[in-house]
Amino acid sequence: MEFITYDAVEAYITSHLNPYPSPLAEMEKTARDRYIPIVQPETARLLALLAQIRQPKTILEIGTAIGYSALVLANAVPHTPIITIERDENMICEAQSWIRRAGKEGQISILQGEAMTLLPELAEQEKQYDFLFLDAAKGHYSRMFPYLLSLLAPKGILICDNVLSRGMVSMPDEAIPRDNRTIARRLREFHDMLQECTELDTAVIPIGDGISLSRKKEAMIDE
Ligand SMILES: C[S@@+](CC[C@H](N)C(=O)[O-])C[C@H]1O[C@@H](n2cnc3c(N)ncnc32)[C@H](O)[C@@H]1O
């Protein structure tokens, strides 16, 4: 991704990835042809590996689109139930059809609605997940953060995509197209939240469009 990694290095990495089997390869083509934003191929591999290492009991994803990353995760950890939140009805229909085609309808459930409504509801029900993947509207990450933190189980991991936003977070405002300045500012606030949160340890990884990887510390035991 321009301004995050060298194009030649990224091209080298992506050209050496083992292609995914059907239907993920077709989904990649569909997303490319119709400009549907899905995780970058190298980010998908990292996501899958992190799930395999962490072996979560449950996964919560925010931002389904056509269901590509949910299926990547479903293949990586075939016994882990995945709940994925999406507000766009057309995307949901399409995701359901790919999920059926992959035979993963028993593993992946789509929660339809606005994440800013659903996340507080889940938090109120005291649900907790040990693997959270945030890949929704970047401008809302900071507002979602308190709910994500309460939904994350101790020792659970939170992965957020697009946190470098084509490198814009690091640029002076004058170098950012006017329409994107608010998103860049909000993402900088989100980085500060992650780093200042004493319940999390966080690293930012310049892969794809930039991901943050956080682990929630074990619960403190009161003396
Ligand atoms: C980047 S795409 C997700 C891509 C998907 N994770 C993948 O890699 O295959 C973001 C999706 O999140 C949905 N979305 C964005 N903001 C949302 C919100 N606040 N609540 C629910 N869905 C949201 C959009 O409709 C879009 O389909």
**First-to-last CA distance:** 48 Å
Q: What is the beta-strand fraction?
A: 15-25%
Counting H and I runs of at least 4 residues, what is the number of helices? 8
Listing every helix as H and every strand as E from the N terminus to the C terminus, the arrangement reads HHHEHEHEHEHEHEE
What would the principal axes of the Cα set say about the shape? Answer: globular
Provide a descriptive summary of the structure in words.
With about 220 residues, the chain is α/β, with parallel strands linked by helices. It has one domain: Rossmann fold. About 40% of the residues lie in helices and about 20% in strands. It contains eight helices and seven strands, in the order αααβαβαβαβαβαββ. The protein has a seven-stranded mixed sheet with strand order 3-2-1-4-5-7-6, with helices on both faces. β2, α5 (about 90-100) and β3 (about 110) form a beta-alpha-beta unit. α3 (about 40-55) runs parallel beside α4 and α6 packs parallel to α7 (about 140-150). The radius of gyration is 17 Å and the shape is globular. It starts with 6 loop residues before the first helix and ends in a 7-residue tail after the last strand. The site of S-adenosylmethionine (SAM) has 19 residues, from α4, β2 and α6. S-adenosylmethionine binds near residues 65 and 91.
